[in-house]
Design a protein that fits this description.
two-stranded parallel ribbon; two-stranded antiparallel sheet; alpha+beta; 4 strands; 31% helix
Length: 113
Amino acid sequence: MLVVGSTGMLACRYACQVRAQKHRQEIIAELKEMVKVLLVEYFKQTRKKPTRIIFYRDGVSEGQFKDVLCEELQAVQLACSSLEKGYRPAITLVVVQKRHHTRLFPVDERDPR
């Protein structure tokens, strides 16, 4: 499993954490530890703690949305509070899917874009 985090306030530099994970396991097993390492790296680079975390998540089936929300959101919150008591940045969790049935078509079929 790969977790990537920005290490700067302009979001143009990134660090990553990689862990082996069991096949077909949707919940990220060591997310708390991985996020903690990325938060420390962010602090090393900026000398500030992030006030907001935007967490993009892919590869989640619809039946697992609630489990991912509960377990992974809690893991991110625990990673934050393990660094400093009372540290609770705003966290936005965005689950993205690629198997949707939305189709986009040009307004004008002659338009090459």
